[in-house]
Amino acid sequence: MYAIIVPSMTQLSGSVRLWTCRNCNARFVFDEIEAQTDESGFFFICRDCDYRNRLVNVGPDATGRPQLIQRDDE
Ligand SMILES: [Zn+2]
């Protein structure tokens, strides 16, 4: 199975969220990146270096979609 997850924007409160590549430190605006998931969990692929960055699902939002965050230590 291979699915594209569309992050919910309902939790945003006006601030721009960024995801940072842990390999090359490139930064991406949250809604420019398509988070992906496979049997090992959620991740996004860096557009600059193709590094796979782990994401954490902190639980479904009100519509049942996963809310993904990037932990500072991963
Ligand atoms: Zn990168």
Strand order of the largest sheet: 1-4-5-6-7
Radius of gyration: 12 Å
Nearest-integer average pLDDT: 81
| Class per helix and strand makeup | mainly beta
**Sheet with the most strands, sense and barrel status:** 5 strands, antiparallel
Order of helices and strands: EEEEEEE
User: Helix content range of the residues, please?
Assistant: under 10%
Please tell me the total number of domains. 1
Poorly predicted tracts of residues: 9-13
Residue share in β-strands: 35-45%
Q: What is the approximate shape?
A: globular
What is the distance, rounded to the nearest whole angstrom, between the alpha carbons of the first and last residues?
Answer: 24 Å
- Put simply, the count of helices is 0
Number of strands: 7
Bound compounds: zinc ion
Account of the protein in words:
It is a single chain. This protein is mainly beta. It has one domain. The chain has strands at 3-5, 18-20, 27-29, 35-38, 41-45, 52-60, 66-69. The strands form two sheets. Strands 1-4-5-6-7 form a five-stranded antiparallel β-sheet, with no helix packed on it. The protein has a two-stranded antiparallel sheet with strand order 2-3. Strand 5 and strand 6 (52-60) form a beta hairpin. The chain starts with a strand and ends in a 5-residue tail after the last strand. The structure holds zinc ion. Zinc ion binds at residues 21, 23-24, 26, 46, 48-49, 51.
